[in-house]
Write a structure and sequence with these properties.
The longest helix is centred in the middle third of the chain and has 10 residues. The chain has one domain. The N and C termini lie far apart (about 35 Å). The chain is an all-alpha fold. Pfam families: DUF2229. InterPro entries: CoA_activase_DUF2229. This is DUF2229 domain-containing protein.
Length: about 25
C-alpha cells in the first residue's frame, strides 16, 4: 500500500457517516 493510500482510506473511513447522510439527503 502506498504512503498516500493509508491516510486516504482513513479519511474515507472517518467521514463515511457524513457521506452516507449527505447522499441520503439527496
Amino acid at each position: 500500500m502506498s504512503r498516500v493510500g493509508i491516510p486516504r482510506s482513513l479519511f474515507y473511513y472517518y467521514y463515511y457517516p457524513l457521506w452516507k447522510s449527505f447522499f441520503l439527503d439527496l
